[in-house]
Design goal:
Number of helices: 10
Shape: elongated
Structural class: alpha/beta
Distance between the termini: 87 Å
Largest sheet: 7 strands, mixed
Order of helices and strands: HHHHHHEHEEEEHEHEH
Number of strands: 7
Strand order of the largest sheet: 1-2-6-7-5-4-3
Helix content: 40-55%
Number of domains: 2
Strand content: 15-25%
Length: 292
């Protein structure tokens, strides 16, 4: 028997294997293919060791580096809180001061009587809780739930949520007025119909230049009516009492609490970082490898 015939006899019959491959177990076929290509199966010990081998250990984190990173993060947070809180205090300083003002309104009296007596300016500080009577209503405007009107006697823009009293029609040929209103008509500050009704308001009185940012739009609307510079005109917010500004004080209290806690955490992180740094320096001085 020749060598070629022996080799051919040792090999499995291709036709037989192909015809019966569907009846063989897939796992046996895979092992047969591995044997044909010379692949060596892994021993059970190798497989068991690979499954039970623990993952590689992570390098230890340097405590000083970690403390420095924590200190830097808390420093950024503290600066952000202080910056935001400082801006909030600046923009709400008037509301906070108004909250701590006298809760009893300063009585301005009847403004029409004051004007008739020759008084041409209001002796009152800005951001004061006041009560005023005899306000003349001109250029009434509606904006949302608020109504605005202009009192020309002392250049006061009034904002209110209440219903305004009805005035007489301007086209009436005869309107009876009190003699003391004559100077107002002579100075062309109002029409006779504007003096047939008055308004009484109690609230926060501000200079126009001290008002909130939204007052700029209101000032533009009444700019043609103003007879004095904006720093001499007023904004009267009817119904605004000092106690209504409580939420401003509450917000500032939260800011102080956040700033205090953030400052304490930053100081603590800085102290830990300094202690670790001092320990590292002390260890370096006593290390025998440094030749000392």
């Amino acid at each position: 028997m020749s060598a070629d015939s022996v080799k051919n006899n040792d090999l499995p019959d291709k036709s037989h294997s192909s015809s019966s491959s569907q009846d063989l177990d897939p796992e046996l076929l895979r092992q047969f293919e591995d044997w044909r290509h010379g692949a060596k199966p892994l021993s059970p010990d190798v497989i068991r060791n690979a499954a039970t081998q623990p993952p590689p250990e992570k390098l230890p984190v340097d405590p000083l580096h970690r403390a420095s990173r924590i200190r830097a993060v808390r420093q950024v947070v503290l600066v952000a809180i202080l910056l935001f809180g400082s801006l909030s205090l600046y923009f709400t300083r008037q509301e906070i001061a108004y909250f701590f003002s006298d809760s009893t309104p300063y009585d301005l009296g009847n403004l029409r009587n004051h004007y008739h007596s020759g008084k041409r300016s209001l002796e009152v500080e800005s951001n004061t809780y006041v009560r005023a009577e005899g306000l003349v209503m001109m250029e009434i405007a509606q904006a949302g739930r608020f109504q605005y009107f202009f009192c020309p006697l002392y250049n006061i823009i009034v904002r209110t949520e209440r219903e305004l009293p009805e005035k007489a029609r301007a086209d009436l040929t005869y309107i009876e007025l009190e003699p003391e209103w004559l100077p107002i008509l002579e100075n062309r500050l109002a029409l006779p119909s504007d003096l047939t009704a008055g308004f009484e308001a109690t609230g926060q009185l501000l200079r126009l230049t001290d008002g909130p940012r939204w007052v700029k739009e209101v000032r533009k609307f009444y700019d043609a009516e103003l007879t004095v510079p904006p720093d001499q005109a007023f904004l009267l917010l009817d119904g605004e009492a000092p106690g209504d500004k409580l939420w401003y004080v509450f917000a500032i209290g939260i800011f102080i609490l956040l700033a205090g806690s953030s400052g304490w955490l930053y100081a603590r992180a800085r102290r830990v970082e300094r202690e670790l740094f001092e320990d590292r320096v002390a260890m370096a001085k006593t290390d025998p490898r440094d030749g000392r």
